[in-house]
Amino acid sequence: APPAAARTAPSGTALSADVVIVGAGLAGLTAARDLIAAGRSVVVLEARDRPGGRVYGLPLGDGTTAEGGAEFIGPTQDRIAALTNEMGVATFPTYNEGDNVYYRNGRRSLYATDGLLGAVPPDWGVLDLELALLRLGRMIEDVPVGEPWKAAKADEWDSQTFHSWSRSNSLSSGARFLMDVFVSSALSARSRDVSLLYVLHYAAAAGNADNPGSIDRLINTRDGAQELRFAGGPEQVPIRLAARLGDAVRYNAPVRSIATGGHGVTVTADGVTVSAKRAVVAMSPAIAGKIDFSPGLPASRAQLMQRYPMGSVAKFVGVYDTPFWREENLTGQALADSGAIDVTFDNSPPDGSRGILMGFINHDNVRRLDSASEEAVRAAGLESFGKLFGDRAKSPVRTAMMRWDNETWSGGGPVGLAPPGVLTGFGPALREPCGPVHWAGTETSDYWTGYMDGAVRSGERVAREVDEAL
Ligand SMILES: Cc1cc2nc3c(=O)[nH]c(=O)nc-3n(C[C@H](O)[C@H](O)[C@H](O)COP(=O)(O)OP(=O)(O)OC[C@H]3O[C@@H](n4cnc5c(N)ncnc54)[C@H](O)[C@@H]3O)c2cc1C
Questions:
Q1: Among 34, 70, 376, 462, which residue has the least CB neighbours within 10 Å?
Q2: 224 within ligand 1 shell (Cβ under 6 A)
Q3: pLDDT tens digits, 63-115
Q4: Ligand 1 neighbour 69 (Cβ under 6 A)
Q5: Ligand 1 pocket mutation pick from 54, 83, 308, 343 by most atoms within 8 angstroms of CB
Q6: 3 pLDDT exceeds 70?
Q7: Hey, how many other C-beta atoms are within 10 angstroms of the C-beta on 223?
């Protein structure tokens, strides 16, 4: 890496535009599209050598890719659906035929995905869980989408973790495990890492203006957020959108500093400086916190960026000649209480011409592998697959892994998390502009915050906001 002085020096190209957008993820690219459509000149600065941010096609080493980051889209995710359509990218149903695997206390069992109550894991704890879910459902109704800090009980709900609430509102270890694995699969965090209010809002946001959000829509494959996948991978959407924007997007341009003053903003990246009337910072709060702002930001925003950490997640992928689990009437979806992987999906191509199993390595499980060798990580992933899907799962043709917590320009994933006290103490600063600096990114969205849909919604919202301000 070049020495710090060289990195921060405003060297190279000098550009000017109405608006400079920092980050070419879905949020930044959508904002650029809309501002250009409104007749504004735009420069997008992207740190990586590719667009898409948390949407990424993971190379499998044989010239093909699998979803390394975002993967699914589901009902009420209208804005990513519209963009996907606009970009001419097709979707197809996530494989969901047969039974799911449930692994708990050393025992493997199967459960139907099409039971009367949907996919209900075979655990006595589900009765207890249903009562807890009823209580959660009532609380979710009382959370204003996009402004959880305005809930009547915001203080009470933001003063406890989801872990404390789930322990006081369930008796069985089964219900507790299922609530923990819900948080793990949606947020790649442990229940103790997030406030109750944050989880309630995440579920309230899993809908649209006509359909209130719910935990069911968040966790389900059928009729839920995991319903569909993208032909050719979801990264086709940002790749095609960025291609349309052409030279407006500059890659390998990590922004180091943003200076504001009477003139507007001066944004300095490696090799390029942009002067503009307004800036949009389109990324998670934690990653925005790496940028040096002068003069300094208001404390509520500066401290929000210290308090909104990313989840810890890796995706581990095994490639097989065939999706052999389908022959055994298995969906490829599993929940496990032990091992490196706690949640799996069938990531095979739409024609099933080969099999791809994907497992999430979440929170402590991924940090535990920090100093493990590549072979040890592979062995841990395959041990999980073997336990869940039998010996054939232990002998893939190849494996691949994407660790988001090691990514400098993501810092983890899938989304920024709010521990207790953050939404009520700092929440409004998520979206509130600081002079000519505006904020986008899925974390700022009302509906589907945390998802690609939320990223697109945030880009559309910030474009309107900036256009009005200009
Ligand atoms: C493992 C994983 C699984 C997921 N699964 C799903 C899913 O199934 N469905 C779904 O809808 N969503 C999923 N998500 C979430 C989804 O990927 C995100 O919500 C969405 O992509 C966020 O888009 P964004 O534009 O807000 O932020 P990002 O995609 O994070 O974009 C920010 C951009 O800013 C760039 N950047 C950062 N710092 C700088 C800087 N200083 N200068 C210049 N550029 C900078 C980054 O490189 C990046 O390109 C998943 C995410 C992960 C990690």
A1: 376
A2: no
A3: 999 999 999 999 999 999 999 999 999 999 999 999 999 999 999 999 998 87
A4: yes
A5: 54
A6: no
A7: 12
**Mean pLDDT over each residue of the chain, to the nearest integer:** 96
pLDDT band for position 1 (cuts 50, 70, 90): very low
**pLDDT for 12:** 81
pLDDT band per the 50, 70, 90 thresholds, residue 11: low
ipTM for the predicted complex: 1.00
Query: Alpha-carbon distance 352 to 87, whole Å?
Result: 25
- Nearest Cα to Cα of residue 161 among 378, 417, 465: 417
Question: How buried is residue 39: exposed, middle or buried, by Cβ count under 10 Å (0-12/13-18/19+)?
Answer: exposed
Range of the domain at 268: 4-53+235-297+434-469
Q: Residue 6: pLDDT above 60? A: no
Q: How far apart are CA 253 and CA 270, in angstroms?
A: 5
Pocket of ligand 1 contains residue 450 by CB under 6 Å: yes
> pTM for this one?
0.97
Q: Calculate mean pLDDT across residues 265-291.
A: 98
Determine whether the shortest distance from the Cβ of 451 to ligand 1 is under 6 A. Answer: yes
442 pocket-lining for ligand 1 (C-beta < 6 Å): yes
Distance, in Å, from the CA atom of 388 to the CA atom of 221, rounded to the nearest integer, reads 19
- Nearest-Å Rg of the Cα atoms of the chain is 22
SS3 211: strand
Measured in Å, residue 125 CA sits from the centre of ligand 1 at 35
Helix/strand number for the chain, H first, E second:
17, 19
Number of domains in the chain: 3
pLDDT digit string, tens, across residues 167-183: 999 999 999 999 999 99
Q: Give residues with Cβ within 8 angstroms of 180, minimum separation 6.
A: 163, 166, 190, 191
Among all chains, which residue has been given the structure tokens 């692994």? 103
Out of 56, 431, 438, 452, give the residue to mutate to test ligand 1, the one with the largest number of ligand atoms within 8 Å of its CB: 452
Q: Is 114 part of a structural domain of the chain?
A: yes
Q: Is residue 188 part of a domain?
A: yes
Location of structure tokens 């999980």: 384
Q: What's the CATH number where 278 sits?
A: 3.50.50.60
